[in-house]
């Protein structure tokens, strides 16, 4: 018999599996059919009386929508299924409604009543889905209904529903034409959820608050919910999910910069200086110091130590960002954040996360290279690295260059410049080489010699960057070591080598590279006492018309600079004698070349070149006073170029990085509020108690709501404890002997049941007498007390009657047997 039952069960399971497979295959065939026939078949399924057919039709609609097809033709057929009792169908209908309700607002309004009725269901999951779907239907006309439903579910005893309410608040803000009064009301609701006793509800409310924070960035009132919950958030931050932890860290970091005082740094030397933490670490005037934090800021920073062991990379990045913006480098070292950041930057599968980690490391390294100086090898570029990641690594390598590691870093950068298949990465490597030249004059000289050798071997954008670095290196020498004879000779030698490269026709330099070399020669021809510039000008002016626009413009400027030095020399020799000045100036070869360049530029195709030629003609050909103005204009020292990165990253990614690494300034000390503003707010509990559901019972610093007996209500706990616990019935398989038992056993069992029944009736009578005595003692109570007691008596009597009727039924069945 047992074997036959097992075989029958296996047959049923096989039939069930075959039915499910057939339904799935039918659904898949329907989704693959042409759209013309599909628009006929799907409405038939949606209008069917069978839940299975309706579910199949809804799956087809959702699948078509997920593929990017238009699901709007089925709107009317889908909406009418919102009243179904099948949970699977209703969930798919709600998903469809949130997608297309804005397109068909009038038809979507027919489903609002049904969704609103779902808030009365006993299943908490159904209530949560209903409030989320109701807020997701972004129709401005139902906003009052949404607000009423949010107010209702705000006190729901289920944490799942309250979490869904927090999500609904965030969705309601997306509704168009939202009035300021409604926004204020929803912020008040969100404030209550942030003070909820359940950590999952607070976690969801934090996500919604983080979403709404940019909309109220100019208002300080949006931070009112954080004031009273700041210390509580710091104590329960490890109870939140990973996304909420990251959001909360960013929120509290912003809060700390806005409402908490800066840390103070105390020098440990004899000076005993005390300063506020500067925005830039490099501005700290002493290397050894002690830090003093505000109590609340110290509480927040200590709460982050536990999160260093989080498995979420975003949480670790948020912790590093918070410590970087709120504490000095010594605290960053104490947290030992270097190893987690290096691990994320090196091993993260998400390129965005890795890029954020590299950006934080780069920002810190330029201000204090001692934190990551021992991890240089972790920032070597791999062939598989994207341009953004490689560029960040090269920037970090340049920031970590020291006398003890510059040799190895420079060799790596040279290798990337000459061997990288990506020209953008090679260009960034050259920029990093230029940054390394700031280390010392000796390394400046070595890097300059290497760059001059590579100019003849490279082309394109790499050559342009090499010339930019050469210009940067020469201007560094010209600015700081002009009085040193060796450096002056090296500048002349470099200018001369560039002039030889310019004359070599076999190199086929591009126009941008040629224009850069001409600019460098013109800028530093004065260092060589105007000896190199005239020769280069004499060579270039012959092919002026054959050069590109940028090169022609720079040739004109070179001629003007050569002429300005010539005018200055003749003016010094002639003194105040105008005749001698004009005579020597007219016979000067350099001045005649300038006049010829002006004549050529007068008929140039470029508007900029013609305009600049007219300006130079007025300055250098009018009078000696104007010539002095031209000399000042042309010979003034130019600023050293910023050897920076020219990343071609997408604007969206660049903006995301900029926003992530941006932070507001510290507030001034005289504008900060008092510390008692962060007094812990009361935690709001939502629990069952009293005669019904209590909306809120506020208790401060209590993990569970206390049970306080009152004269006006009878707690459910005391009522249940007063009842005699019923014996649990046990069920077991009967044998044939038990089933066909003798009459004696039946009589004995019936007698036992009668005895038990009499005992229970006696206990009920005792309870009734006790209640009567209590009523006599409380005759002066109000009417609501009488109603509560009378309702309890009726309930007890009703239960005793039911129990008696059940026992009579049992005796009747036993007598029949």
Automatic annotation (TrEMBL):
Residues 797-817 have a biased composition (Basic and acidic residues). InterPro entries: AP_beta (IPR026739), ARM-like (IPR011989), ARM-type_fold (IPR016024), Clathrin/coatomer_adapt-like_N (IPR002553). Residues 740-796 have a biased composition (Acidic residues). GO terms for cellular component: AP-3 adaptor complex; endomembrane system. Residues 41-623 form the Clathrin/coatomer adaptor adaptin-like N-terminal domain. Keywords: Membrane, Protein transport, Transport. It comes from the Eukaryota. Residues 694-723, 739-817 are annotated as: Disordered. Pfam families: Adaptin_N. GO terms for biological process: Golgi to vacuole transport; protein targeting to vacuole. PANTHER family: ADAPTOR COMPLEX SUBUNIT BETA FAMILY MEMBER (PTHR11134). This is Clathrin assembly complex beta adaptin component. The gene is APL6.
